[in-house]
């Protein structure tokens, strides 16, 4: 019997046709997917340069606005508070403060950036808060592909915070805005040293840290590090050495960026050279202390206080010292001047920043955290010691913690050292050490540093917003001059109290001296107020800061904190140790928040809070010419 195959052949044909159809559909799908993917990829490729251009354009505007903000802030007091950021309240679609931007200006020549046409705009007002101003920039970048002729665009919205924080000048054991002379084999800094100018390391001083110099166009110097490399200690020596007061040198570094001392196992010439950083293109801005009324308001906001023993000198709602001066006569030049002398039983108790609208004379024990601002000079006439100092035993970080109660009632666990005593002394004039009323104080060596270049030179002083000299009332510059004269032994044009040769029962007869005999380093108080309290200075636990000079005479001394000034003339006997207070560095795990102590602040690096791609319509071109 023979099998019939006609039905089988028909099935095969149908099956073959079905397979061919499926293959055609699959191929069409693949080709369609490939075409779609190619188009998507082409669109993505077209948009990528736009995306990068928009980001880069905003970042360039951010930097330029920051530069203009810094220039504005350089001669003004900056504090936490809306007033510090009022500059940002003046704005338009293409400007913030005094900085204009857009498509056709000096920031983006011809309105292009990275091959793209770019528009950067503001669509709503900057948000001004107590500690920062937040600006949201919109950037639209458009690009036409020169080969395909396709056009792509991307719009980016980026939120940038402009704030202030404790000035970076406090990141150093020794910072001089003009000429730095860290000289002599008997001087040691456990911390970085820096000058906004040339820095001399003559006679092998020891610097367990970095050394910086920066170009200073006003003084006409490149910021060279001169006269050698200095010396430094290796890890074993640093760990075992007592630098003045025990356990006060900063701890060893445990991780990159924590501010500790990165001590080498063995000090080589390469190590010495590697820590030198001379001729930097830009120095660090040293903020001027100008409008002390801002500090008074800040002190009131924080409810700052100043006491000696049981006596309250500045109450929580005052912010500044209201009492008469030591002469007891409100008509004398020492009115509102303040003498502070603490003992271990009755220390100077400080809570937050406070203001004294005249000279401050200080010695003795201090406890608490805060900064004393003086509208003129601060005279250190004896040891200034913390009652409860920080401790870095064995040069190690203190990992112990404590629990504190915040003003809102919440508790917080913090480093023990971050709650130990920390004193800032900040003067609009000078910080003067020792007894300038004594005959031997101004010897030839000290006089040289107060009157002679390069130690001190003429320089431009700060101007207020109205164009007046911020320190004009204390002689910087003197009437009829445009710069500080460069001589701290000169008369500043102000008045002081002097004693009559005739004594009266129970004290002195005071005389108002307005004959122009007051010198920059003099105090407004009567000479005996200083001479009767003066003793050899062997220890200063404080952060020293002022608008002009820190100078005077001390003994074999340890300064635990930081020395920051425009000119320095410290004459010491035998040895001097500068132990930088590790808690001043914001990257330190034991850092003290500046909101607690209220030290001078400067503009902080702008921070990117967030960004996202948004529809182009959100940055519609509402202006002509862009």
Could you characterize the architecture of this molecule?
The protein is an alpha/beta fold and 626 residues long. The chain is built from seven helices and 37 strands. The chain has a 20-stranded mixed sheet that branches. Strands 4, 5, 6, 7, 8, 36 and 37 form a seven-stranded antiparallel sheet that branches. The radius of gyration is 32 Å and the shape is globular. Residues 1-6 and 33-43 have low confidence and may be disordered.
Keywords:
626 residues; alpha/beta; 7 helices; globular; disordered N terminus
Instruction: Give the low-pLDDT segments.
Output: 1-6, 33-43
Strand content: 25-35%
Q: Which bin fits the share of residues in helices?
A: 10-25%
Shape by Cα distribution: globular
The count of β-strands is 37
Which structural class fits the helix and strand makeup? alpha/beta
So how many helices? Answer: 7
Write down the overall mean pLDDT. 88
| Main beta-sheet annotation | 20 strands, mixed
**Straight-line distance between termini:** 92 Å
